[in-house]
């Protein structure tokens, strides 16, 4: 799955150190599934359907491109790590931890393993109240009624109160959140777009992706580099300048962080490889005439990959026009990036070796990259 969806979950506990149980579940979900985009206050509510201690309850949200069934299995694994085994339980009992998927945007699932939206969500104040707190405009995907309206018409007498207890969002401790504008760079096939999408989903940032698919000269360039190199580089520069000018002009206006899968210097780096000297000198003059008006990234993350991995990744994505890319061309791109960044100590560049990682499939590899950013 490539499309990221927002998951809303509920977490509760009424055994032992209830607050610590919930915090531990948040930490485990962060390390195994995704970073939280929102975490509600802690609510205290009475047990429903059985005699037991009062519960602490929260709702939280995160984005993921994994299947709902995969997410559910991971949440069940978190419960087991914390000491719960659903197979040995009656329907209503005290629980050290209870984690449920409540909503996945407008998605509906009705299977034996998983039901979304959660069938009891509209009958539980301890779900509705924290859910509305973190996402007040939610609409029930089946009856098309706002959760606020459902909550306001609630008839059942269920005791619940909002507490002053504090939970930590694990992602709030990561230094990456201090950067307003991050650009991810690297060679062709290094994973720039995949990493940018994941960071955007995890930290709820605006995502700016290069519009290379729309470039009419790209496929022609790989077939006939000499004839189409200048046209290709000029069209890329024009499009990158337009996109960065438009998107980054809103950076302070809306106070939203931005993650991009390219930096504008990419135009200068690739043009030096692809153009002859006269063309490059002309191109460079034009580049710097535009450069001063562009907002610069606070941080550039550069992904170092082996040529072997680059070739493998290029083959996996199956773009016909990239099939002819040679090892020599990729080596030249690596050298060009290296030479350029050495000549620009004013740029804040973080080099990360991802040659032994699979940060798309392995959450811990991804977090290793995030934890290297300081």
Q: What would you note in describing this structure?
A:
The protein has 2 domains: 5-170, 2-Layer Sandwich (Alpha-Beta Plaits); 174-371, P-loop containing nucleotide triphosphate hydrolases (Rossmann fold, 3-Layer(aba) Sandwich). It is 40% helix and 17% strand. It has helices spanning 18-32, 68-81, 125-134, 147-152, 192-203, 218-223, 225-248, 265-274, 277-291, 307-317, 327-342, 363-371; strands at residues 5-13, 36-39, 43-45, 55-64, 98-104, 109-110, 115-116, 160-162, 181-186, 206-208, 258-260, 299-304, 349-353. The strands form 3 sheets. Strands 1, 2, 3, 4, 5 and 8 form a 6-stranded antiparallel β-sheet that branches. Strands 10-11-9-12-13 form a 5-stranded parallel β-sheet, sandwiched between helices. The model has no long low-confidence stretch (mean pLDDT 93).
Please provide a brief summary of the model.
This protein has 374 residues and is an alpha/beta fold. The chain has 12 helices and 13 strands. It folds into 2 domains: 5-170, Alpha-Beta Plaits (2-Layer Sandwich); 174-371, P-loop containing nucleotide triphosphate hydrolases (Rossmann fold).
Distance between the ends: 30 Å
Going by CATH, what is the homologous superfamily of the largest domain?
A: P-loop containing nucleotide triphosphate hydrolases
Q: Under CATH, the topology of the largest domain is which? A: Rossmann fold
Number of domains: 2
Q: Radius of gyration from the CA trace?
A: 25 Å
The largest pleated sheet is described as: 6 strands, antiparallel
Structural class: alpha/beta
- Give helix % range: 25-40%
At the first level of CATH, the class of the largest domain is Alpha Beta
Shape: elongated
SSE run: EHEEEHEEEHHEEHEHHEHHEHHEH
Strands, count: 13
